Task: structure prediction
Amino acid sequence: MRIPILRLGDILLTSIQSDITDEQALILQADILKQLDQTQAVGVVLDISALDVVDSYMARILTETARMARLMGGEVVIAGMSPLVAVTLTEMGRELVDVLTALNLELGVEKLRERLASLAGESGEDVADGSR
Amino acid sequence: MNTLGDPTAVAEVPVSGECDISRARVVAAGLAAEAGFSRAAIYRLATAVSELSTNLVFHASAGGTIRLTLLKRGPSWGIEVTAEDKGPGIADVELAMRDGYSTNGGLGSGLPGCRRLMDEFQIASEVGRGTTVVARIWS
Ligand SMILES: Nc1ncnc2c1ncn2[C@@H]1O[C@H](COP(=O)(O)OP(=O)(O)O)[C@@H](O)[C@H]1O
Ligand SMILES: [Mg+2]
Result:
């Protein structure tokens, strides 16, 4: 089964379940990249609140998805990352490097919007600088 | 283990496919919850079981089993996880225990992470015969 991706304006939302297989993860990555490429979407919120654990396998899927989305010019926030998950991940020896995180979906969307707004601000200045 | 009194093997989960991984994890977490482990300890155990099960699926040709045993030492409860397989074995165990070492493009933090998450950790492996990991966590 394909993992559904919702669109909320220029933000993509998707929820990752515990039983995601390697193959589904690859399809999901491809789907996200396609939507970033073909729609107005510029950011992704990956909701992981349904995961019972984030083991190294899942950590790899999450970081890879985030990295690929970034390469496409998208921003990624991982939502639903409880302190318990964060601590265990750190002990596993792998933090989710360089990925924005939020406690829940709502805060995740908020964080992504802030991030996108500040990026837009920056590039706006760039344009102004360039035209001078 | 004799010093621990009567260890009871409470569950044995055959693990050969990806869907068995979450089952092993759920059984382990349920057992720890019943034994009164803290949420943090349950989470550590579940993560460790996940790592060991994943290794059974991806590194041991025909999979293996996850055995869970309840231990009692004085006032505290322990859970022992044994991950056993008759797969290809590991040529250099010390290397396999190193952070970031993986032969299949994984993160390579499964075994070292499992050692950090659990209170006790042992691994024995023989090339051509298989691998056994025994890890324990105490309440
Ligand atoms: N049960 C096993 N049988 C054979 N080899 C194993 C087993 N478990 C682990 N290994 C070897 O040890 C390496 C490190 O394992 P691990 O730390 O879990 O990292 P990863 O699974 O990400 O590769 C694996 O890449 C594999 O070569
Ligand atoms: Mg592993």
In short: The helical segments of chain A are 22-38, 56-71, 83-92, 105-131. The first helix of chain A runs from residue 22 to 38.
